[in-house]
Amino acid sequence: MREIVRELNRLRDRSRFMLLLQRGSTVGAWVLGTALGLSLLDYVLRFPPFFRALLLAIGLAGLGWLLARRLVPAIGFRPTLTDLALRVERAAPGLSGRLASSVEFVAAGMTTTNPLAQRTVEETQQRLTGDPFAAAIDPRRTWRDASIAGVLLAIVAILTLVSPASAGTAAARLLWPFGGAEWPARTGVASMMQGVTVHPRGQALALRARGVKAPGDATEAMRLIARYRLVEADAPGPWREVVLRHQGDSIYKQLVDTEGLCNPKCLWQAGIDHALGLCGGEPIRAEQRRVGAMRESDCKVH
After folding, report:
1. For residue 268, which of 240, 242, 221, 230 has the smallest C-alpha distance?
2. How far apart (Å, rounded) are the C-alpha atoms in residues 284 and 191?
3. Residue 126, CA distances (Å) to 10, 122, 221 in order
4. Average per-residue pLDDT in the chain?
């Protein structure tokens, strides 16, 4: 009977370990899956800080609930030998009504003073065949939950190794919503004014830029806005805005009036921006130039 008691003690340790593994895997899978899903949504939708703060508060509340309802009870799980014996009886019907009683008789020391208790213990030992203790625990749910948590952990680890900067940005945006972490722009603007050196007076100036997009983004859907102003005698004028129109092949262009631009010490400043991209621009300075015997006023790009 002592061997049976030792088996029940081992069964208690094994069942507690399996329960802790199952509950811990559930909590881990919930944390990893939620963080991964929210990071992907944040990358696509670019959640504002207050909304990320709300998600963080809800996530922490949910994690606290899981810990209190799932993990803490598992840590305190310590079934009695009688409870384990009853569980073994359900897995081995031949021991039904005998194993739990025998365990209680042995624990109370009745086997030496009560012939009925002694006979019950002996019959239990005779009926004990095979390994009924192993069948008392069904590990399938534990291995299922542990496998899910392992797969999610592997996905997070692979994504972190492939792009550690993106993983850091995702973690910073989720855990510190009001910090300065930002996703890289999916689209941008490349100026096409670098090769322009001289612009004739009296002709409209064509602002040109190329939309730069990430794979899968539609550049044609971009809305590019050019902001410009005149700075004359160190006195900047008001900013003006024009929308650059798509010309095909990811090129955007808009004509702006250059009247008053080609005066000495007159600087034309421009910047190009759009909702999902970067900023850029080229300054144009007006200069007086003499070509042979003919005098003309041109605008030179610096």
Report:
1. 230
2. 13
3. 21, 6, 81
4. 76
